Amino acid sequence: MSPIIRGCQRQDIGFSLLHTGQHYSYGMDRIFFEELNLPVPDHHLNVGSGSHAGQTGAIMSGIEQVFEDERPDVVLVQGDTNTVLAGSLVATKMGILLGHVEAGLRSYDRTMAEEVNRVVKDHVGDWVL
Prior knowledge:
With 129 residues, this protein is of the alpha/beta class. It is 45% helix and 12% strand. The N and C termini lie close together (10 Å). The mean pLDDT is 93.
């Protein structure tokens, strides 16, 4: 997502960065913001860990409120996490155009939670970037 953020900044395209807090350890979170010199997120949901359903539901609820407040024209989700699944479902149900950045490697193994997230996103999204 970093190159897209940089492109928006260079071209003065407004964007809002939402961080769900699904990953919250330094090695899976803060280090990327520091090393890539990314802006502080505009929204932080602080969902933390939990069951797949509990975490995804908490993320969906938080994202829905942000989307209702912000009314984005386009939503880009990144990766293959529960955050991607939640953001994809909420954006689609709200009629917001949806793009997917960096989907991860396809395993075609539906016993992997990440593969399930990728498959669902593929079916509801508008673009894969």
